Amino acid sequence: MFENELRATAQAMVVTGKGILAADESFGTANKRFQKLGIPTTEEMRRAYREMLFTTPGIGDFFSGVILFDETIRQSTADGTPFVQLLSNQGIIPGIKLDAGAKPLAKSPNELVTEGLDGLRDRVKEYYELGARFAKWRAVITIGEGIPTRRCIEANAHALARYAGICQEGGLVPIVEPEVLMDGDHTLERSYAVHEEVLKTVFYELHRYGIALDQMVLKPSMVISGQTSSQPASVEAVAQATVKCLLDCVPASVPGCAFLSGGQTDQQATEHLNRMNVLYGGKLPWKLTFSYGRALQQAAMQAWMGKPENVPTAQKALALRARCNSAASVGKYSPELEKVAVSV
Ligand code: 5MM
Question: Do you find a cis peptide bond into 335, omega within 30 degrees of 0?
Fold first, then answer.
């Protein structure tokens, strides 16, 4: 019923030169980030923060979509414009986080499974009526001694596929996000092996559940050495390994891969994406773009600090990251771009 609309939305989400802002931090994550900076953890502060982000002049040139949290999709600017309308007016597609978070997987110490399938059909219907046109579900895979287990990979892939099916039935393009964490001291090769197993399992489950691959977007992590690895991989190695792994695992009918940043520094996330597009842009079956949370927002949040007088500086910080990542999504980023002032 929604097929044409879903196909068009998925294409628009990965349109050339644009990416997705992940602003769907749940209460726990948003409050943790505020607390670190001494920002009060109130509903009004979370609203004011998102208003600062979404009213940044020019973001419609760089963002195709914004992922919202349940609280945020119901909020408005101080002068009463609903956020959904504010984004749509700028040509930005509103999306919604649908998972209920990653919880401990029974009988699998240190592994997580993402919950949120109960009642999902009704929630999809409500969010569609509220104006969302795509959704996100994040599965978390940890690399460590003896993990990830097949049990963990399969449980998460199964949930991703069931979520994606309910989304497509209800008119929301599913972002399928299997995140392999960067935490740990693993090598690039180990990251590759885990990504390959996870992505192959996810696409097997998507197939089993009848998911239309041209009506979804993949949000993968990059194939990268662990944060405490003694052999940190170069930008070139990360770009090559990530694209090779995606070519091995992601069917050509998927319109695009919009990466998460996963704890990389702002500039690392930009450089890795840029290098992939420099090396392979135009030769791949799908677009490679960004769907960053921290790597787009952290400089802006640090500049904002919860103070209205800091809004212009914070918006400049967001606009700078948006512009750099937009350039990276077409292989046109260079570190000099970091120094070119943005006008907001
Ligand atoms: C991995 O997190 C997603 C991408 O963000 P990064 O680029 O910072 O890695 C992000 O969309 C995440 O799912 C949201 O921030 C929501 O997080 P919580 O912890 O609230 O589910």
Answer: no
